[in-house]
Amino acid sequence: MRRAGVGDWEALREIRLESLRDTPDAYGSTFEESRRWREPKWRWAAAKWVYFLAERDGRVVGMNSGGFNDRHPGTHWMYGMYVTPDERGRGAATSLVDAVGRWARDEGARALYLHVTTAVPRARAFYEKTGFVANGERTPLDRDPAITLVTMVMSLD
Description:
Layout: E1 2-3, H1 9-22, H2 31-35, H3 39-48, E2 50-56, E3 59-67, E4 76-83, H4 92-106, E5 111-117, H5 121-129, E6 133-141, E7 144-155
Parallel strand pairs: 4-5
Antiparallel strand pairs: 1-2, 2-3, 3-4, 5-7, 6-7
């Protein structure tokens, strides 16, 4: 588990595109839109966004990011969680959640928020297992209002 840097742009691109192909209804962006990003944009994302990468045997097998949400000022959020299928159930996902939780705590947060789509019930079950609870907020996904986002929160105290 490690925080991504600018030198990780290719690995980040590869795992992000894999995630969008594997579970397209789980994310706010699409494979087609992300596939069109050029190298400078991937470099910028790897350097400026708070991405964590899970690795096994030198191969990136998962990603997660921490950030903020303009609709909820002062809160810390987890975005873009993904673990490649052959690594699921082996601890990478929990380590990725822990990494973003540590980042948020280090930033002074007392809670970590996320959105999970109703289209991916296994993701919601995982988040519940790791301590997230639905807070009652439900919103449509910007790119596809037919997909509902459930807001979940985990205490960092």
